[in-house]
Design brief:
Length: 228
């Protein structure tokens, strides 16, 4: 599923890959509509339908992920509202063990996320995730989301990497397809990003796993092999 012996860099998505997507799903689909309804004296269902329509219109763009954009657009403090439910932020199964094994293997681990820097800081403060990887890059630093084909070129100017010796792990099929078109050597899909939702179907061309324990045996074997 993953040929670890050809790799020197592992790019990792954060939300839905390392962290449980339930936090974000709950926030955008439940908590924000509730608080928006309270602020504007709307029926909760009306608020939810209005917000979902607005959000879906931005899907795939950087605005989709930008808390500054949504705070201004909705006249609410998105970061404050996220902090209200930050107790829901947490790791997906087997992630700490996977990251520790990845580090012991000598492979470079880099979080490559569409998360805006403000909620990113909140998530790092709750999890300490930054202590377990070598670097973190937000797409907001590059001015374009991972879905953009030019993202991967610009990422190379931020952090040098060899495309054919890089693995991208993400729960978003559009992101993985974008990475593959950009020449990333290997891609791996996370099929169960949200602990409260059913797994996603398998992609026809990109291998997928539900949890990292499925690739841990091969990674440990790679770790145990003598250096070339």
């Amino acid at each position: 599923m993953v040929n670890w012996s050809t790799l020197d860099t592992v790019f990792l998505d954060m939300d839905g890959t390392l962290l449980d997507l339930h936090f974000d799903s709950h926030f955008w689909l439940e908590h924000l509509p509730k608080r928006y309804a309270e602020q504007y004296n709307l029926h909760p269902q009306q608020a939810k339908e209005t917000l979902i329509a607005m959000i879906m219109a931005e899907r795939g763009s950087l605005n989709w992920y930008c808390t500054d954009y949504w705070s201004e657009r909705l006249s609410v403090d998105i970061n404050q509202l996220k902090a209200e439910v930050s107790d829901r932020i947490g790791y997906r199964p087997h992630v700490p063990d996977f990251l520790a094994t990845l580090r012991r293997s000598g492979l470079r681990s880099v979080i490559v996320t569409n998360c805006h820097p403000d909620p990113l800081a909140l998530k790092l403060s709750r999890t300490g995730l930054d202590k377990h990887v070598d670097a973190i890059i937000s797409s907001h630093e590059l001015g374009k989301p991972k879905e953009d084909p030019d993202f991967w070129r610009d990422l190379g100017r931020k952090i040098a990497y060899r495309q054919q010796h890089t693995l991208m792990v993400d729960d978003s099929f559009p992101v993985l397809e974008s990475a593959r078109r950009a020449g990333i050597g290997q891609c791996l899909a996370i099929l169960e990003p949200d602990s409260k939702q059913a797994p996603n179907p398998q992609h026809p061309d990109i291998p997928g796993i539900r949890h990292f324990d499925e690739v841990m045996p091969a990674l440990r074997l790679h770790q145990a092999l003598p250096s070339k």
